[in-house]
Amino acid sequence: MGRNVQEEDTMSLPRVTVWNEFIHETEHESVRAIYPEGIHGCIRNFLKAAGHDVQTATLIQPEHGLSDEVLDKTDVLIWWGHVAHHKVEDEIVERVWRRVVAGMGLIVLHSGHASKIFRKVCGTPTGFLRWREAGESEVVWVVEPSHPIAKGLGPNFVIPHEEMYGERFNIPAPDELVFLGWFEGGEVFRSGCTWRRGRGKIFYFQPGHETFPIYHQAEIQQVIKNAVLWAAPQDEIKPGTEEVSFTPAPPVMALRNTGFQAVEGLHDKAE
């Protein structure tokens, strides 16, 4: 099960599972040359170098590599997907969702914005945005420098080549906007956003097109390492016991019994 993950210097680091659909790297030599161990392997390597216990999972594995046994050993799940969102089984999405609301952290990268799990987290059709693949540079501005995910960064950093993402990005208003991306064509994009669902923390980070060596860049690695620490659960993850529930509004009769009187009507003219 998930562990109590508190201060980095006094407790063990969060355990991470990196999920990648792992299709581009197997089908395209140009992508494989950049990520010979897959995008998940690249992320695994720099997180392991930082001291994390890291496992990986891919689409073609049984249960997409996300069995209950794997998730029992996961404090933070990182998700990268692009061309096979529709192949992810709904049962696995529901399993991950239950873990998130119970406290597991979720970090969604780049084109994972259109994944089933991110759509479920946001409750909106998150696949809608503008895009252009032209190898333009992106300036990532740190708009919330005091946020833990921005630790160790300057006012901005530059990604030499990236796929352009532009607004409107069909997400609910973030709890926190940490990064704002600006592209050569003049477009801007909410490139680093956080939310909370139940006990879980979610971070979406836009950079990461597969044909560019973005996950080899020091600033990108710093953001992901920071995000893992931020998203880690503060208490033990207990899936299935942390249901999202809502208290129903009191009935009209109950209000009357407390001395209030319900009034209703229709405004049919300007006041």
Structural notes for this entry:
The chain is an alpha/beta fold and 271 residues long. The chain has one domain (16-257): Class I glutamine amidotransferase (GATase) domain (Rossmann fold, 3-Layer(aba) Sandwich), CATH 3.40.50.880. 25% of the residues lie in helices and 25% in strands. It contains eight helices and nine strands. Strands 2-1-3-4-9-8-7-5-6 form a nine-stranded mixed beta sheet. Strand 7 and strand 8 (188-197) form a beta hairpin. Helix 5 (90-102) packs across helix 6 (116-122). The longest helix is centred in the last third of the chain and has 14 residues, at 218-231. Residues 4-10, 252-256 and 265-271 have low confidence and may be disordered.
Number of structural units classed as domains: 1
Strand content: 25-35%
The N- and C-terminal alpha carbons lie at a distance of 59 Å
CATH fold-level name: Rossmann fold
Outline type = globular
CATH superfamily: Class I glutamine amidotransferase (GATase) domain
The quaternary structure here is: single chain
Secondary-structure element pattern, one letter each:
EHHHEHEHEHEEEEEHH
Query: What share of residues is helical?
Result: 10-25%
Mean pLDDT: 88
Spatial strand arrangement across the major sheet: 2-1-3-4-9-8-7-5-6
